[in-house]
Fold these 2 entries.
Entry 1:
Amino acid sequence: MSDSASSAQTFRAIDVIRKKRDGGELSRFEIGALIAAYTQGSIPDYQVSAWLMAVVLRGMTRGETAALTDAMLRSGEVLDLSGIAAKKVDKHSTGGVGDKTSLVLAPLAAVAGVTVPMISGRGLGHTGGTLDKLEAIPGFHVNLPVPEFRRVLEVCGCAMIGQTAEIAPADRKLYALRDVTGTVESPYLICASIMSKKMAEGIDALVLDVKTGSGAFMKSEKDAAFLAELMVETGERMGKRTVALITDMDQPLGNMIGNALEVVEAVDVLRGGGPQDLRDLCLELAAWMLHLGGISKTVAEGKQESAKLLASGKALERFREMVELQGGDPGVIDDPKTLPQARHSQQVLSAKDGYIASLQCEQVGTACVILGGGRERKEDSVDPAVGIVLHRKVGDRVGVGEPIATIYYNSGSRVERAQQLLEESCGISDSPPSEKRLLIHRVIGN
Amino acid sequence: MSDSASSAQTFRAIDVIRKKRDGGELSRFEIGALIAAYTQGSIPDYQVSAWLMAVVLRGMTRGETAALTDAMLRSGEVLDLSGIAAKKVDKHSTGGVGDKTSLVLAPLAAVAGVTVPMISGRGLGHTGGTLDKLEAIPGFHVNLPVPEFRRVLEVCGCAMIGQTAEIAPADRKLYALRDVTGTVESPYLICASIMSKKMAEGIDALVLDVKTGSGAFMKSEKDAAFLAELMVETGERMGKRTVALITDMDQPLGNMIGNALEVVEAVDVLRGGGPQDLRDLCLELAAWMLHLGGISKTVAEGKQESAKLLASGKALERFREMVELQGGDPGVIDDPKTLPQARHSQQVLSAKDGYIASLQCEQVGTACVILGGGRERKEDSVDPAVGIVLHRKVGDRVGVGEPIATIYYNSGSRVERAQQLLEESCGISDSPPSEKRLLIHRVIGN
């Protein structure tokens, strides 16, 4: 609380806090100076948390959101992938349960001719994370140094790594602060966090998958649409073609939840099979990646091309190549038994006849976390083997005593609570529920 | 940002932050736990600053404000003055320019039979502080230990000291944080800060002087009235008779601004003289102190009694007694020349004929600060000798070349800027301005 707290040339943190508190629009300079000073450690957490709360409650204009994204992006390095001739396109999801699309999309878009420099996160709360899924593959390295990341990209057109220290350090510091100060829930801050990291990947275009429903961060379609529009406009303002699909996360995506299980299901899709909903979403997202990457003239053409590459096994071969290049055991593709296996399993049986009306997605995700498949706190380690396989999805018929799901577990003390949550998550009705679209809405940049 | 940041039994700071962020009403337990944890240092500044910003933007209910006041009060000691039979009544002003009423009121109410345990503050920004004025008296001690404070009270019925470490430590910590996080400007937080310290004085009743106008913290009457009502309700909820007067601070109070000069003018009033506006306000405030202290049946009676005690010289004698008991030189009462004297003086002359239409109060206060008579930062020391004497007030006629004010200064490098500010502060019009009431409004508790 010394004076140094609010110094640095003509910029004073206290003035920026007050301006936002009073509903003013901050200039690019003010936002840039605040983020630079915080990243350097020359303004304290307590000033930034007050500012963050003012942003949560006062909001930001589109210009402020882009300026914040830009300031966070420029707090670190931007990958220079200009040496790679192909268009660089990434996909980002706001997070859900059973969402293993990244594992399918990176090799699928790469084999079509797009370069996919994918930097992903870990699971937190009830949602899974791509890095945790990849690490279920024995030997797979997600922490490649940037030159090695670039080499894998050059060789096979896709690479999947974790956040590096060089990329958007402001976001890491801000996110840690937001997490403990009740300032996570702001579309402006969420947008800047996501977009600053994605723009640092040196991409030409971005496809966003904004989830909505009981398993999503944005529970309502309205909130999801707002965030989607904000991210698309921010991406376009930063000169990148950006598209957002708003997709359903009211029940888990696909049938398998849990890290090793999700690798198995992703491989099924890459082999041309897999559950319909997962396959459909992969084709939709891949089509947009191919279209924005200049490979397909239309989205419809991109979808056809993607379906062909799944059917031919070419996408799967590219996945195999990437796994090998990143140190993983490609044997898991041919024999899922070489993935970590849970020691025990137990079925969840239906207590009555009827139709599955709902599978409360956050509860299913939390059941997987309780088994050890996710983390309640950042420091927690993850058990790759555990998880849940759903035998029924929303709309399916079920008879009394028939299995709804199978739980794969290693710790007997945890299975009971997981079972209870799964039973609670599942609503059964006498008549079939109204059908829900998987793809709810598209937001397309200019 | 560790987990310890949000632990402690069933109370989690993050939950309290989120609840206030979302516009919820906090319970007495939640507010109490937050303030207790912060005072003990078991939750960090960055969580409390986020919560403070949420309070600034979401507001508080009357119940929350009283709970916050109570929690801050209970962070430290409450003086036990039950050994003194007389009613204990204090007066608090929200701060202004030339406001030396406390120096008059403490001995005046004391000689009438009320006990006045007055704990005051220092000047900050453009406003003066009672402690700085008292310290202009050679030898006067404002930092009496509590037993000595009690002894002075018992002997002469009034004593005037500075904040002690034992009283409301939560307020000291919170105020320092609010000062650097843009969270000062909230009537709820201002109310809790003022009332927690006043309630800790062990008083039976409180008279509040809420200033409004260009020299006040609350520029608008509406904001002043809101704060006044909030403080009165909070005081009454805590079982103390509380009254607020909303009074004009659109021009300085009295004619003298500066620490030693204000002692001179207070002594003038105590001697039965002094400028009309200052004398009127002292009588109004004293009347309420006497009425709430059970000395006068009505406020009108209290005013008559107070006027008598000024005319008879009894109030001045009580002031002399208090000055002596607190180590000060009572000679200053008989010979103002024994107060610190500035080496130089300079007149501010009117550039035209007309009526004084305004004396922008914040500018006049700032001129005094520039001369060295106030502090821009808490660490600054104060020059007791410097200041300004106004020869004209709003509504007075002035001819071209006639003096509006005299500046008393010690540093030639500062006088020019002070002179310029005084000239700017003074608006002269051809016709007399409409008259303004000094007492704008009263808020009386149940």
Note: Chain A touches chain B at residues 1, 3, 5-6, 14, 17-18, 21, 44-54, 56-58, 176-177, 179-183, 377 (CB under 8 Å).
Entry 2:
Amino acid sequence: MPTVALDGRGAERGPETIVAGARGAAADGIRLRVFGDPATLAAVEQIDGAELVPAVEEITNAEEPVAAVRSRPRASVVLAAQDVAEGRSQAMASAGSTGATMTAALFALRRLHGVRRPALALQLLVPGRPGPPALLLDVGANADARAHDLVQFAYLGAAFSEAVLGVAQPRVALLSVGEEANKGSAEVVEAHARLARAEGLDFRGNLEGQDLLAGAAEVIVTDGFTGNVVLKTIEGTAKTVAEAVRAAARSGPVAAAGGLLLRPSLGGLRRQLDPDTTGGAILLGLRGVAVVGHGSSGPEGIANAVRLAARTVDQSAVERTAKLLERAGMTRGGLRGESPRAGMRDRKEL
Amino acid sequence: MPTVALDGRGAERGPETIVAGARGAAADGIRLRVFGDPATLAAVEQIDGAELVPAVEEITNAEEPVAAVRSRPRASVVLAAQDVAEGRSQAMASAGSTGATMTAALFALRRLHGVRRPALALQLLVPGRPGPPALLLDVGANADARAHDLVQFAYLGAAFSEAVLGVAQPRVALLSVGEEANKGSAEVVEAHARLARAEGLDFRGNLEGQDLLAGAAEVIVTDGFTGNVVLKTIEGTAKTVAEAVRAAARSGPVAAAGGLLLRPSLGGLRRQLDPDTTGGAILLGLRGVAVVGHGSSGPEGIANAVRLAARTVDQSAVERTAKLLERAGMTRGGLRGESPRAGMRDRKEL
């Protein structure tokens, strides 16, 4: 079982959530190193297989990630990333600032050969649909993406889907505004053309917003701006509709009785709409494993973030991704003429 | 009461839907000129205030809009647009190909002085929330948008919201991936900076996906790629969640009884999720009025598309938009160095 470096700071629901989450993951046999405030995380020491590593500094959501990560080497998230880079842990997970987690991971773990921009990938759980969830990427690592990046995201997502989510031959789709190859922004149209002739990918063409949750593809590729907006739109819409149903059930005694009778059957729907279920997003394209948990994670969300990190290590996802990129010729030329930090240019826009 | 030129072809649910929709709108006193096949639309002649104008050609969804509109001057949607340009009607509406409708309108009605790219705007109805719906634009007229375009969309949306939706001082927000001014793609960050100092707009900053339906702004600005994806994502998610609730109500006898009791109270939710309720999107930035109905419109959707077109004329929305653009200085410089057809460059990407 791998060791996961868990950021013990930054979770919106406080250190108790971290402790409870660590306990849940440790019960599965995962070893943990938890970085944070010894005063509030003392209970970690009581967990079998978990170790507390003091980290006196914290990076908050409000801070500019690159500047904060650079200037605060003893921040919990930076120490967690460093722990993976130095081999004491095999993966990191944080429910703190998304920007700081991505930046710390990128600095410490570095990009795979040929990867221009790492991408943040998230599993989309579909209410009422069993089977493997679709993987949407990028959901926010890069605010701007070129056609070349979108093609690379397709490989990163396919490798992860196969290695960690257990999909034999993941179908890949490109998010756009119509099914036809010529629909979309200039970069999307160009990405479509390249994906259509890409080797080693089961590319199924464009996919529109209404089909995101329809199960037509296991990997859905988009730029980080659209992906982030779409992800939050799904969350917001699901919440709004669920609230409208609840409001209807409060609108009178007959409806209220109906709501009470229906309630137990809606448990599965509630669970599928709960971000805790997936454990968070994963940053793909690095030489190590970094999971970005939902800021509002409960104990189950923290435990699932650690489990996702451990499973990604167990399945050798990084090595398999590197091999797929090499077979696809993505390690040649992609970085020609670029500085090794090209991927950081937009970091401030996160 | 204005006369509306209604495209009698292209509606997915057939000419009967057009006839029934025309009857509904005519009952409100709106005069109609319906363009289409005399054989299937003969019943239009029986409607008080409606006139049938034969149009032998049709443009389908599958066709490339610019080529089709150019080569088929006798297509119903082209004749309807021409009817407005020549003053026999004051507005047009179509539930046929969105691309063809936009192209025909753009060619015949032309852009307002200073407008680089017209934008397609749609009212977002929020389940369970009374009050004016938010206007989202662009939902698909332009696949790529520059910062300048986004600022212009803000003025176009604000003018329409005030004139037609009756919002006294519409709050304007920019769709992005975070609240901070520096979050988003390069064009969005630049648009934010310009909107923050724009005159005559109540700009409230960035708005994220989860807040699209939260009622924080009456005008939400984005590029046509993101807007189109987001719009379809809202539709798809609402449908998926509603289906999951229905499935729960079929999961056993107790749940089924609950569903039956709750059902009557869910009527409002169903109505708010039905695209027929708003009548469709409106193309803003032209010297005339063009409404793009939902392809799957029922009779009420067609009638509401015609009503929206008539109301837009009644409220002098075009004139008020032109004045707002002039006050904002948007009629100066915006077109400098551009060909008059600049807005058509991306038309093929629709």
Note: Chain A is about 40% helix and 15% strand.
